[in-house]
Amino acid sequence: MRRSYKKFLENCKNGYIDKIKSVIEKNKIDINHRDEKGRTALEIACSKERSNIVDCLLLSPNIDINSQNNDGETALHIACTQNNTYIVEKLLRHGADINIKNNNGETPLYLACSTGRNDIIEVLIRHQADLYTKTN
């Protein structure tokens, strides 16, 4: 992985919004580039509950909001296991696929249920998550 992209991901993980904005504004990086685990900057920001970074990344017209990592998880899958309904709402408003399955056949709703995230379950149901999708 290129050094510049590795630094970009570190900045996403650590919440350095000014550095992220600068790189995005200068269009110096492929915002959908993946690390060795197949994770994008958006997925990493969601895993660290960096709302400000998620907001910034979603402003990029080239963002692939439904990009899947090596486990088939999207940013929405990851956000649904965290403690941040704001990020889940934001992803859904930007067109995240609410019923996409990961490699285990699990939807974001399934993951929210399995981690006991009632507030996120409510958000997903309000956004028309399929309650009858079967997992593997």
Describe the structure.
The chain has helices spanning 3-14, 17-25, 41-47, 51-58, 75-79, 85-93, 108-114, 118-126. The chain is mainly α and 136 residues long. The protein has a single domain (3-126), classed as Alpha Horseshoe (Serine Threonine Protein Phosphatase 5, Tetratricopeptide repeat), CATH 1.25.40.20. The chain is globular, with a radius of gyration of 14 Å. The mean pLDDT is 92. It comes from Anaeromyces robustus. Keywords: ANK repeat, Repeat. This is Putative ankyrin repeat protein. ANK repeats lie at residues 71-103, 104-136.
What is the CATH first-level class name?
Mainly Alpha
The major beta sheet can be summarized as: none
- What is the global morphology? globular
- Spatial separation of the terminal alpha carbons: 33 Å
Pfam family, one: Ank_2
Protein name: Putative ankyrin repeat protein
InterPro entries: Ankyrin_rpt (IPR002110), Ankyrin_rpt-contain_sf (IPR036770)
Keywords: ANK repeat, Repeat
